[in-house]
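Following up on my earlier thread - several people asked me to post the actual chain instead of describing it. Fair enough. Here it is, all 250 residues.
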Amino acid sequence: MNVIGSNLEFLGGLARLGWQALRQGLRPPFERELWMEQFCQLGVRSMTITNITLLFTGMVLAIQTAYSLSAYGGKAFVGDIVALSVVRELGPVLTALMVAGRVGAGITAELGSMAVTEQIDALRALAASPTRKLVAPRIMALMIILPILTILADTVALFGGLLMAVLEIGQSRVYYINHILGALTVQDIASGVGKTVFFGFFIGVIACYNGINAKGGADGVGKATTNTVVISSISVIISDFFLTKLFLMF
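Reply from S.P.:
Thanks for posting it. Predicted structure:
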């Protein structure tokens, strides 16, 4: 019962913090300087890891597809399979997982350090809202920047597939691109990018909640950081299933 109670308390805390962050983040005046700082910290500095991950994912996917379908005469559909797999699922999920590992851990460590050194309590004592100053900019920035990172990573992954299609499979560049354009629809792109808005919200809320509730010094911050990476990664994978079902209804 204690485990169930603690889990319910955790979920309730996440829901309350998420609602407060959205309400504070969407209410003017907006903290433009804080938002721009988070765009740089969370978005620009995550481009390298997300793009490298998706580049080699696209390359591996193209090779494996060509190898698996060669016995059935399906090499011609490498572009189609790479495009649909990356844009619908692999791009959004892998980008979110990379961001959860890098950004989620960083947010929790930063806010956790402020919590154990009583800097967050000092903000409350000065009548400043920690949710507005610390939480809302990070969550809103993640919800905006993660779709952008996903679009860039998808493009890089398709380029990786193009390299393998031309160099390893022997297809022409125009042939591969035409198959990509013929396979993708607006719904495919919208569903893949749309899911990342929810992923960014989940990662941000989990990271901020674990950070501001960290206790016990450096050891507590370390445990909170580990919990953030694990829980946010699981939440991305589980929510991907339900979001996929939801977007397929439209």
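The chain has a mean pLDDT of 88. That should answer part of your original question.
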